[in-house]
Amino acid sequence: MSEKRPKPPGLKWRSRKSGERVAYWVARPDAVKQGFRPATQRLPYDPDDPGHLDKISFECGRLQAQMMAFQHGGWERMKRPEDGTVRSIINLYLHDEESPFHRLKHTTRRPYECYAVVVIDTVGSRELGSIDGRDVRRWFNGWAGAEETPKLARAQTCLAVLKSALSFGVMCRRKHCAELREIISVMRFPHPAPRKMAPSRAQIVGIRKAAHENGHPGIALAAALQFETMQRLWDVVGQWVPLADPTPSARIAGRHKWVGPQWSDIDQNMILRWKPTKTSNTTGVEIEVDLSVCRMVAEEMALVPQEQRVGPLIVDPKGRPYDAKRYQRAFREIARAAGIPDALWSRDIRAGGITDARMNGALIDDIAKAAGHTDQRTTSNIYNRDALGAHRRIAELRRSTMQCESHTDDRVARGNELNEDPAGPPHH
């Protein structure tokens, strides 16, 4: 019998008229009277997601930590940068108007906010001048946890928040930041094992078939695009971002707007052009893809009536852009119907396309350009998951070289035999 898990702090369940239960975090009344906000916060809850309780627990813990910090001195004390502690330098990074934190994409900013609370809660009271590398190593191990499978991604994100805060502290000439940042820079910390899942072309065909059978032709087109153009999932499907995001959009819903590829991004020659979201504000690399040579994409596009080729490229059965949760849930149902293991994620399709291209002899340089990578090492080390194929190619090259050397030795030996004098050496 499994152990009963403790109730997350502040969690309340409310029932709608439809019978659906919705999770909320509710602040304590005394904190609300003191001015703490939000008083209530709706939490993500998906009854089909087996990990939903972990998400709710994390959000409750984050909000509860903010409320407790507020009650111990209010927002001004939370944000005060002069006391020389880890808490002060992180709050400087999070709240200063000129901090690079505000230039992060929302998909990075939200995890940073969450894990900043973890760092503050665990080591926020430590004075920067008293910290050495041994402390940071212990913190990292604590953030990862003592389980058989440590949460290295969590620990790495906590460390990234700390490093970013220290770097901004150096920029602001805060005492001890440069020294501690230098100490961390010479240390090495374990990373999560790289993913090895990479779907084959046959598996993509199966996913497309199951997507149509389950009424999601948009996901069939998305899978084909991901695989054959080797682009990131959200650069193919699009995503809902906060209204404050500078990317222009004509589709707005509440506090969010949708950005992503549209049918109008495909010209009359079937060339699709767009800037990947990850590099749009940095390198500005623009992707150009000739869809006329993408067989699976062409097959899916042929199923879309001309009058429906307007607006977002990938839409749900009701003609709306997918949000992340609905897309992932629908993809998992489709993948299971196609016999795809749960260990394979929708974002692995890109790696499958890159791996397939390399297996078919494409040059790493060409793959990197097509995938929008400015560094070929990203293509080789992260997305090309054909380790067995790489070994076989090396073995084949060795075998070919050995065969050439063997043929050369045979020719030399035959030549020496022809040059020998049958009478033997002269007698003296």
UniProtKB/TrEMBL annotation:
Keyword GTP-binding on entry: no
Record-annotated Tyr recombinase domain positions: 192-399
A GO molecular function held by the record: DNA binding
UniProt region (Disordered), positions on chain: 401-428
Gene Ontology biological process terms, A to Z: DNA integration; DNA recombination
Matches recorded under InterPro entries: DNA_brk_join_enz, Integrase-like_cat_sf, Integrase_catalytic, Integrase_recombinase_N
Gene3D superfamilies named among the record's database cross-references: 1.10.150.130, Intergrase catalytic core
Domain of life: Bacteria
Stored Pfam families: Phage_integrase
Entry keyword set: DNA recombination, DNA-binding
Protein name stated in the entry: Integrase
Organism: Ancylobacter pratisalsi
